[in-house]
Amino acid sequence: xxxxxxxxxxxxxxxxxxxxxxxxxxxxxxxxxxxxxxxxxxxxxxxxxxxxxxxxxxxxxxxxxxxxxxxxxxxxxxxxxxxxxxxxxxxxxxxxxxxxxxxxxxxxxxxxxxxxxxxxxxxxxxxxxxxxxxxxxxxxxxxxxxxxxxxxxxxxxxxxxxxxxxxxxxxxxxxxxxxxxxxxxxxxxxxxxxxxxxxxxxxxxxxxxxx
Length: 211
Known about the structure:
Blueprint (H helix, E strand, L loop, with lengths): L4 H24 L5 H20 L5 H10 L4 H26 L11 H23 L10 H20 L5 H10 L7 H22 L5
């Protein structure tokens, strides 16, 4: 039986909450190899909620899936609201558990941050489209691992350049938690949504028969 939109949004809120909770606590808490924890958290939430909502947990991924035709216009805005709500709720839990960063977030180099966020958001959305929506990979058991490891790889690779959000909801939460400078939020929004959209167009170009 198909899940209701309310159930889907609840799953999106919970998944995004756990992802941001892990990011905040591991980064502010100075956990060694935080990207590994972040990728693992995303992986398990994808496996836990994929059958309910599709496990986007990311407005840029939702945009990519909408362009792909695997997220309806009826779901698009509610999903994003649920993701942002989950992210913001997680900031409250993070502040209660580990407080705020000891140092203010350093300013980003705009061109490098834009490129880093665009490339790895593209990679993330492209992986999601191919492992979770393509006909050729339908029913596979590796989709959650592939998605989680993409974020982990991005965080290890360009985390020191852009902060490694690859997700507008995460970027907003990181700004609220003090992990990202407030005046750089536009960088994440532009690069993340741009990367998600470009991934959808790339998928459709490479797989024209996969409607």
